[in-house]
Write a structure and sequence with these properties.
By secondary structure, this protein is α/β, with parallel strands linked by helices. The chain is 54% helix and 14% strand. The protein is built from 9 helices and 7 strands; from the N terminus they run βαβααββααβαβααβα. The strands form 2 sheets. A 5-stranded parallel β-sheet has the order 2-5-1-6-7, with helices on both faces. The chain starts with a strand and ends in a 5-residue tail after the last helix.
Length: 190
């Protein structure tokens, strides 16, 4: 069974993924695959032509510099996605083919990358915007950075099984365990 795990940044999606992994699911970190794709020479060459040499540091793409460019301009973000998303999708499909049991695709941009159609079930992690700002400020993001990034995630919608994460880790763990039990039993309605 392939489970899509999505949610806006700061909602606790990675924490939910970690709990699912502890419970026995195989978790595919799609962000990590995206980072690997950015290390491929063909991708580096394309992005150098599209965004210039200033996105590089010591021969590698500086993701922070690239993020500053693409989160300032939605058209540039779309250009970046046209380059990397097909490669990410292909890699994820290869990993799924070699997997069994419950496979979780941990991907905020599940739909945009084109991974949602590979999923039997989708889980959306959500929380209050106030909580998102609180959590991301603790991680060092400025209010402006948070607003830009959330704006770039406006297409992430609540669907499938919804897990609310406004409280503590104990509460979240309990909710995730309940959902995992439903997945194991095949009762996966939203």
């Amino acid at each position: 069974m392939v489970v899509g795990l999505t949610g806006k940044m700061g909602c606790g999606k990675s924490t939910v993924a970690e709990i699912l992994k502890e419970l026995g699911a195989q978790v595919i970190d799609v962000d990590k695959i995206g980072h690997e794709v950015l290390k491929e020479e063909t991708v580096k060459d394309q992005l150098k032509q599209l965004f210039g040499p200033e996105i590089f540091c010591q021969g590698e793409i500086d993701r922070k510099k690239l993020a500053e460019i693409v989160f300032e301009d939605k058209e540039k973000l779309k250009i970046l996605e046209r380059v990397v998303h097909p490669m990410i999708r292909r890699r994820v499909m290869e990993v799924i083919e070699d997997s069994s049991g419950i496979v979780v695709l941990d991907a905020a941009l599940l739909k945009r990358i084109g991974l949602s159609q590979l999923c039997d079930v989708i889980i959306t992690v959500k929380c209050d915007e106030r909580k998102i700002f609180e959590r991301l400020k603790e991680k060092g993001f400025t209010e402006e950075e948070i607003r830009r990034r959330l704006s770039a995630q406006s297409d992430i919608v609540e669907e499938g099984i919804i897990i609310e994460n406004n409280f503590d880790l104990v509460s979240l763990r309990s909710k995730v365990m309940e959902v995992y039990k439903r997945l194991l039993e095949g009762g996966v309605g939203g």
